[in-house]
UniProtKB/TrEMBL annotation:
Protein family (similarity comment): Belongs to the FtsB family.
Periplasmic side: 22-73
Localization terms from the record: Cell inner membrane
One GO process term, biological-process aspect: FtsZ-dependent cytokinesis
InterPro entries: Cell_div_FtsB, FtsL/DivIC
Residues in the Cytoplasmic compartment per record: 1-3
Assembly: Part of a complex composed of FtsB, FtsL and FtsQ.
Upper lineage: Bacteria, Pseudomonadati, Pseudomonadota, Gammaproteobacteria, Enterobacterales
Protein name: Cell division protein FtsB
Topology with respect to the bilayer: Single-pass type II membrane protein
Role this protein plays: Essential cell division protein. May link together the upstream cell division proteins, which are predominantly cytoplasmic, with the downstream cell division proteins, which are predominantly periplasmic.
Record's keyword terms, sorted: Cell cycle, Cell division, Cell inner membrane, Cell membrane, Coiled coil, Membrane, Transmembrane, Transmembrane helix
Originating gene: ftsB
């Protein structure tokens, strides 16, 4: 009976170690979640910049003015 309890305690300890400090444990989850938030913020900044650039491109394409190079005669 004592060996069974010892085996179960070792198994429980190993499971707890894996949960808290293992490769896909709680620490990894929080780190990845933090990285995800930063990436979403960066993506929103880039999306806003891209929208401004597309708007500028559309303005240039739909402009009635014709851009001409100055004559250097």
């Amino acid at each position: 009976m004592g060996k069974l309890i010892l085996l179960l305690l070792i198994l429980l300890s190993w499971l707890q170690y894996s949960l808290w400090l293992g490769k896909n444990g709680i620490n990894s989850f929080y780190r990845i979640n933090s990285d995800l938030k930063l990436q979403k913020e960066y993506n929103s900044i880039l999306k806003e910049r891209n929208e401004k650039l597309l708007s500028r491109i559309n303005d240039l394409n739909n402009s009635d003015e014709i851009l001409k190079e100055p004559n250097t005669q």
